[in-house]
């Protein structure tokens, strides 16, 4: 079969060339307003292939346009996805800024309520060990912070400054076993000492059994320490044990501050008076 085409390839070539020429000629005839007998004969003869050719061209053109449309659509889809990701990130940043502004407004409102000069600071580090519960803030001696200063938030007492450098200070949290604060029951004014006890618990120690203490009572700072304002919440009573032996109650309190969500604090440096 292949040898047959090779043998008569010139004839086939001339036939294809003639067919193409007549097709082109027929296309030109269709555009003419007036046709003679020969023109009409050629036109009638080549009308079917012309229709097929036109259909193929139309289909090819449509496929080509659809291809470019899909390419553009894919690119537009990619751009929209990138835009959505960018908007989501901007939304998260705006939410974080709104939360930060909310916290700062609470700090400002807190400073106006208490007759103490306070210095706002941000937490820049936490002690990773389980032996000490401490945090590091970005204010120090150059800002007027001294050892022993009380550290607060609108929620309650955070701890006490235990060491100071030029631009930083270390805070011992009230949940540390080495921490102690003179405190009293807000409802009855019964006195005791709040000491660090566990990961998120404190003890209200040295409270006589005769004192009326109830679960839910709020424990606040007494104000006896010059660098810590009085009346600031330390925690709420969650458990009470009265043994037969001894003179004191065993009282467990939950701190008022959620230390896992702590970002900013106020350091009380002196009384405004």
Task: Note down, in words, how this protein is organized.
- By secondary structure, the chain is of the alpha+beta class.
- The protein has 2 domains: 1-113; 117-271, Beta Barrel (Thrombin, subunit H), CATH 2.40.10.
- It is built from 3 helices and 12 strands; from the N terminus they run H-H-H-E-E-E-E-E-E-E-E-E-E-E-E.
- The chain has helices at 2-7, 9-31, 37-113, and strands at 116-126, 134-137, 150-153, 156-164, 169-173, 180-185, 191-198, 201-208, 218-221, 233-241, 248-255, 264-271.
- It has a 6-stranded antiparallel β-barrel. It has a 6-stranded antiparallel β-barrel with strand order 6-7-8-11-10-9.
- Strand 10 (233-241) and strand 11 form a beta hairpin.
- Helix 2 packs across helix 3 (37-113).
- The longest helix is centred in the first third of the chain and has 77 residues, at 37-113.
- The termini are far apart.
- The model has no long low-confidence stretch (mean pLDDT 77).
Describe the secondary-structure layout.
Blueprint: H1 2-7, H2 9-31, H3 37-113, E1 116-126, E2 134-137, E3 150-153, E4 156-164, E5 169-173, E6 180-185, E7 191-198, E8 201-208, E9 218-221, E10 233-241, E11 248-255, E12 264-271
Antiparallel strand pairs: 1-2, 1-12, 2-5, 3-4, 3-12, 4-5, 6-7, 6-9, 7-8, 8-11, 9-10, 10-11
Question: How far is it from the N-terminal to the C-terminal residue, by CA?
Answer: 115 Å
Q: Taking strands numbered 1, 2, ... along the chain, how are they ordered across the largest sheet?
A: 1-2-5-4-3-12
Helix and strand run: HHHEEEEEEEEEEEE
Uncertain spans: none
The largest β sheet comes out as: 6 strands, antiparallel, barrel
């Amino acid at each position: 079969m292949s040898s047959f085409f090779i043998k008569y390839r010139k004839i086939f070539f001339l036939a294809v060339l003639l067919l193409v020429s007549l097709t082109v000629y027929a296309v030109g005839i269709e555009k003419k307003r007036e046709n003679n007998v020969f023109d009409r004969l050629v036109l009638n003869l080549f009308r079917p292939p012309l229709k097929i050719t036109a259909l193929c061209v139309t289909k090819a053109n449509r496929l080509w346009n659809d291809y470019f449309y899909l390419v553009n659509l894919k690119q537009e889809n990619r751009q929209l996805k990138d835009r959505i990701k960018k908007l989501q990130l901007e939304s998260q940043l705006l939410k974080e800024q709104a939360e930060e502004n909310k916290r700062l407004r609470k700090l400002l409102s807190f400073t106006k309520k208490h007759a103490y000069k306070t210095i706002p600071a941000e937490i820049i580090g936490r002690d990773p060990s389980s032996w000490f519960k401490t945090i590091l803030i970005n204010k120090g001696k150059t800002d007027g912070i001294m050892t022993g200063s009380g550290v607060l938030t609108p929620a309650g007492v955070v701890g006490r400054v235990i060491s100071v450098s030029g631009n930083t200070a270390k805070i011992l949290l009230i949940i540390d076993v080495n921490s102690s604060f003179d405190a009293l029951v807000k409802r009855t004014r019964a006195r005791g000492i709040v000491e660090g006890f566990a990961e998120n618990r404190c003890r209200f120690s040295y409270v006589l059994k005769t004192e009326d203490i109830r679960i839910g009572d709020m424990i606040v700072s007494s104000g006896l320490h010059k660098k810590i304002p009085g009346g600031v919440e330390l925690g709420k009573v969650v458990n009470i044990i009265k043994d037969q032996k001894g003179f004191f109650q065993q009282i467990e309190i939950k701190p008022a501050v959620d230390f896992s969500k702590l970002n900013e604090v106020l350091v009380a440096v002196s009384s405004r008076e």
